[in-house]
Amino acid sequence: MDFLAVTAPGIEQILKSELRDLGLKAGKTLPGGVELRGSIDDVMKANLWSRTANRIIVRVDEFHASTFHELERRAKKIAWSKYIPNGAAVSFRVTCRKSRLYHSDAVAERLENVVAQQLNARIADRNADDESDSDAQLFIVRLVNDVCTLSIDSSGELLHRRGYRQAVAKAPLRETLAAAMLIGSEWDRQSPLVDPMCGSGTIAIEGAMMARNIAPGVRRAFAFQKWPDHDAASWTRLVDEAAGGEKETTHAMILASDRDAGAVEAAKANAERAGVASDIKVEQRAVSAVEFPAEKGWIVTNPPYGLRVGESAPLRDLYATLGKILRREASGYLLALLSADRKLEGQLKLDLREVFRTSNGGIPVHLVIGTTK
Predict the structure, then answer these.
(1) Under 8 Å between Cβ of 193 and 297
(2) For residues 349 and 365, what is the distance between their CA atoms, to the nearest angstrom?
């Protein structure tokens, strides 16, 4: 079957590399995703193990549709009962471009009618947000040049929701982006990892999970588990194999700190829920008071930027102080920093290169890396 791993625009190559390392047949890279081909076991494996995908969607059908009659005729041929239990809730997310059928709500309504007639399905409110009906099976429909591509979401809740992050600090970093930063930095999962502005601890927690080989999806549920033909035995086998491959502890020293007491408490609580509290040393410290292990390692961090703080002068001072501390106390470390402003990066006085561009909380950002010296 054909399926697509969806991610934030800009980190497609990180995702593709990750999927290949998982042994999956990653093919063409698209804006915001990577195409794959494989079995239903591969779909389940991608959901269980991908640290940077937002969701995994499976191709159901693709056909020409330039009229509503044609759309409905082809939709009636789809084996909807393969994916939707009788009476279950469904939702359709439709986009139309360069097609005679250009009204997305009208397309969704026709598909909803077909499914409701065949399966007595309950139709979720298509105008509500993703949280309004979390049990609804999502179908994603794209009409481009009169070709309708219909896919089913196999993930359910977005994959960044690992289940551990209930306590958050200001402007929390998504788990998938934190993982992309770590992968993009090429952290070896053995050397010290330091985040001197840890917020709610997401980078450190994702690092600990990577170092201990904990599958990010091992403690959560997925949409495909509700499909009528779901192979529960195969899924149990995959989960058991993942649990059996977990390391009891990480050999890497992982240090997380923040000057804000609330952020430190949030980081500790999240690490506890993730099962990695014993692998991370979390402390309340100002950047100027951070102690770096003598052994060379990685500094991966998401400092304040742009609209999150406001005034530019305090930000310039913060970045200048950070650069001074790194050059003096962490010489030889590799720095990976998520940044929104090249002028602020300049305050670090370090030679940095860009790894990827994406967005965080609607703010354009990029990951830059360089060696402190």
Answers:
(1) yes
(2) 19
The pLDDT of 215-237, averaged and rounded, is: 96
Rounded to an integer, what distance in angstroms lies between the CA atom of residue 370 and that of residue 351? Answer: 6
Q: How confident is the model at residue 126 (pLDDT cuts 50, 70, 90)?
A: low
Q: Are residues 145 and 255 in the same domain?
A: no
CA triplet 365, 259, 335: central angle to 5 degrees? 45
Rounded distance, CA 317 to CA 208, Å? 31
Same domain, 128 and 21: yes
Q: What is the pLDDT of residues 317-340, one digit of tens each?
A: 999 999 999 999 999 999 999 999
Q: Could you write out the DSSP letters of every residue in 59-79?
A: EEEEEE-SSHHHHHHHHTTS-
Give the Cα separation of 239 and 119 in Å (integer): 31
Q: E strands, 154-279, where?
A: 193-195, 254-258
How many domains is the chain partitioned into structurally?
2
Q: How many other CB atoms are there within 10 angstroms of residue 249's CB atom? A: 11
| Kind and range of the H or E run holding 269 | helix 261-274
Report the distance separating Cα 146 and Cα 144, nearest Å: 5
Q: CB of 357 within 8 A of CB of 337?
A: no
Residue 187: give the domain boundaries.
Answer: 175-213+250-371
Residue 195 within any structural domain of the chain:
yes
With 0-12 / 13-18 / 19 or more C-beta atoms within 10 angstroms meaning exposed / middle / buried, residue 131 is exposed
